[in-house]
Amino acid sequence: MTQAHNADHLLDITLRELNSDPGHLQSMANSFIDQWVRALGAGHRVQDDIADELEQLKKALASGKTLTIAESLHSLAKLARQAVETAEDGSQEKLRQLSTVLDDLAKSLGRK
Asked: What does the pLDDT look like over 36-76, one tens digit per residue?
């Protein structure tokens, strides 16, 4: 499976889970985040920034601090919007959806 295909597959899973039951992801967050970091690889500024922020999200989830989690989700939403600019046509709409879902989740956790 290529890196791009793996990331696209993870994007599909992420959107499905966040739209249906984001709480379900919490129990497997570390493993899921690690999969994303591996799928993103290295060497591209936005992808590196996303991988770094995913690591921050992992720490925030471990701390249990709701506002820290919300801020990390918001940062990931902004990075997803940036990634739209360089994404392949098929992934652009999914990234827009991901950005919206992450922002909505951040707001539901108290981010203003």
From this structure: 877 776 567 778 888 899 999 999 999 999 999 999 999 99
Note the pLDDT tens digit of each residue in 3-48: 566 778 888 888 888 888 777 667 778 787 888 877 776 567 778 8
Q: Which two tokens stand for residue 18?
A: 């966040």
Tokens of 41: 């690889």
0.85 surpassed by pTM: no
Of residues 33, 112, 13, the one with CA closest to residue 71? 112
Best CA proximity match to 6, nearest among 32, 36, 33, 26: 36
For CA atoms 91, 92, 98, 99, the dihedral sign is positive
Nearest to 60 by CA among 87, 22, 98, 33: 33
In angstroms, rounded to a whole number, what is the distance separating the alpha carbons of residues 78 and 89? 19
Q: What angle (nearest 5°) sits at the alpha carbon of residue 61, between those of residues 60 and 65?
A: 60
